[in-house]
Amino acid sequence: MAKLSIKRVLNRGHVQELRAALKGHVQTLGDLRTALKDAPATAYKRALEEMGRIDMPQSERELFARRKADTQVADIRKAAKERANALKKDLAGAKELLALSKDALSNPFAVLDAQTLGDARRATYMANLSGAGPLALKHAAEQAAATNDAALAAAVISVLERMPNAERPFFPQAVLEIFPDDHEVFEPMREYLDAERALYDSLSLFGEVVNGAANPAARIARAIRAKEAPEENNDE
Question: Whole-angstrom Cα distance, residue 151 to residue 139?
């Protein structure tokens, strides 16, 4: 039998800290991207106003203003790139940490199992359901969903997973399909997924800032992630 690989998993507090830091990076990189997008027009307008104080033909005024604006934009891009690169190490570290914890924190079965592991009722439910028939297991699953009893839902799933596939009256996934997905037991998973979205948005914006150009595909991907996020976490 192949040995399992045991990984170090982030605890909930670490995920919350990581999520807050990543959302801060999203804000910073978003501001830099906006500044870069607005820089050419803003710099040219300011340079044109300054050149307006000098008596010269309009064509020359516009030419000098354009050159001055180009220099200012180049400085702005350089400063933005340096500031973005200062976050590069943080983003790489966050990506590695979230990847290590993905199996444990993005899987509803794993989260439900971990969150109810210390609940004494779960062991009692499992003992009561041991050897239970199909109708008893069906009733237990429905009761768990109706009463928001995460320990009972986890117990039903555990009993099902110990049964041979051919003898299972329904699959474990069916239990989760009827169990409220907004239950507090899944909050660690929601926090993890929110941190993961913030990471992807940060990396996306980082690429735009460092490359000094907008990326339509990346912007569409961010919009899709924003729609997938829970309402309270949707800041865009």
Answer: 15
User: What's residue 103's pLDDT?
Assistant: 92
Q: Which helix (H) or strand (E) holds 123?
A: helix 120-129
How far, rounded to the nearest angstrom, does the alpha carbon of residue 233 sit from its chain's CA centroid?
Answer: 10
pLDDT tens digit sequence for 22-55: 999 999 999 999 999 999 898 888 888 887 777 7
145 touches 178 (CB < 8 A): yes
127-168: pLDDT as tens digits: 999 989 999 999 999 999 999 999 999 999 999 999 999 999
d(CA 117, CA 102): 19
Which H or E element spans position 215?
A: none
pLDDT of residue 236: 44
CA distance 58 to 71: 20
| Secondary element (H or E) of residue 188 | helix 187-211
Query: Who contacts 16 (Cβ-Cβ below 8 Å, separation ≥6)?
Result: 191
Structure tokens at 195: 């941190």
Q: Rg (Cα) of the chain, in Å, rounded?
A: 27
**Do 198 and 25 form a contact (C-beta atoms < 8 A)?**
yes
